[in-house]
Amino acid sequence: MSATTLAPDPPRRRPPRPPGLTRRLADVAVLTGRNLIHIAREPLRLSDVTIQPVLFTVLFVYIFGSGIVLPHGGSYTDYAIAGLLALNLTTSSMGTAVGLSADLGSGVIDRFRTLAMWRPAVLVGRSLSDLLTAVICAAFVAGTGLIVGWRPEGSVLSAIGAFAIFLLFSYALSWACACLGMVSESPESAQGTGLVIFFPLAFVSNALVPTQHMPAVLRFIANWNPVSAVTAAARQLFANPNPSATIHAWPMQHPVIASLIWSVALVAIFAPLATHLYRRRTTS
Amino acid sequence: MASTPMIEARGLTKRFGSTVALNGLDLEVPAGAILGVLGPNGAGKTTAVRILTTLSLPDSGSAFVAGHDVVRDPAAVQRNIGVTAQTATLDELLTGRQNLVMIGRLNGLRRAEARVRATELLERFDLADAGDRLLKGYSGGMRRRLDLAAGLVTRPPVLFLDEPTTGLDPTSRVRMWGVIRELVGDGVTLLLTTQYLDEADELADRIVVVDHGRVIAEGTAAELKARTGGARLDITLSAASVAAPLVLERFVSGEVHVSHDGRRLRAPVETAAGLATTVVRALDQAQITVDDIDIHQPSLDDVFFALTGHPPDAAEDDEGSERSEADLAANR
User: Fold this and answer.
1) N or C: which end of chain B has fewer CB within 10 A?
2) pTM of the prediction?
């Protein structure tokens, strides 16, 4: 090496501290920050939480809205925005699967694994950066909704509650997607599998169409679908038209509690599973 | 051995399906020493490094790094090692500096410490100007240097370099050697793998030759070269000459072989200063014209041939066999 004279590195006397809680949080923060830098570098990655929500919102409101009559009256636009929030957040949670799968396919995870860091920080960091993209997604849907005439009628507090339920649910789904990313061979296959799972999940629900006139089997699935619970909870909190309120299925009668139970259950199942799959995938 | 070795492997075995990657590998590196692990593609070098750096578990055998069991206490091993893998392990979408800061932070440095260290390393590896550019724009040599810097962020006492110069052009290669040489020497224990005898010769105190997942020879570069019978002299004459072998006999250390057309001669030699000049001058005085002269230093192939009686057969495999081995390991 040319001009630089190298002072020899004194060997370190003290190895770095073993990870305690602060270290774990720091590791999570560092990796969340890394994912956010990725987003800043390639903003097009955000198209499915920015452009797509705007497009979906406009299309559904004007196309479906022209043909759908709600069972108990009310404007389709007011009805649809909660459903569009649920739809877009559900499909955008696939980003977790794609992102993790991409990381696993690159050498970066190998580097992380030789560091004295908290291993699950890779997953927790991903879930947090994806929560931030979910916030962006929700803002775009709600903003577009307000422009096309959506009006939440409830209190500000309950509207905040509705968004909190959406984000919690989205966070929970991203842990399920983390598992998907862990068992996928490539980001492309993660995306493909995700579509097959999440499109039916999002559509066989009360998100865009009232369930009342669905065939019996679909109606049953839709009434117990967590996406329906979350959507109904938001409609209730926004004081928007909520035809599901007259359905006897338990989650439709108690949508807020049902949403919370679903979200907590998803995290309780998929967070440990994702951690397990991650360890398995990265141990040979 | 007076003190406990910093790196120690005993009877490591590892299979991937029907492929035996390691077949009872033993290694020992005393503190502060540099061990070169020399072998062709697919010999098991990368698998050995992956096990020693906690990336992979052995099927049997045991390994200790800095006194810690790589299987039972990987976290303690991780706190003592720096790794530069053969494949790129840095984040393409971050700058060089961001990569180093991230690694420092994940190794438990505070933000300010990590930043200072990143700047230090960038300067030291001639990357100061490129530090704030995305990795995507780095050349192969720059990536390797950054990868090496990444392994040094926490000043680990034990370093692993897996084929640090494979794929680099000759200039970057020599530069990398300079960097590595300057790094070690004060207490850092280094294990490096390579396919090149000259690289092991340049950098390592001791060399182990690995084939089919086992150590087949061990010694200094000089000892290994001696086993190949040393260097070889190849001469091509303008025209066949019966006198030429007689002239050469004075300079060679064995029998002179002459080709069928009588123009090409080959013989083992002891390398000495000015040997080529002496030989050409002697032939010239005998009025024999020389078209080409080559003093061939023994290579990995020659060492292999001398040790096993056959060339390194894995070299005929596709180039990526070590890589596919790593991929296999990564996908498990």
Assistant:
1) N
2) 0.81
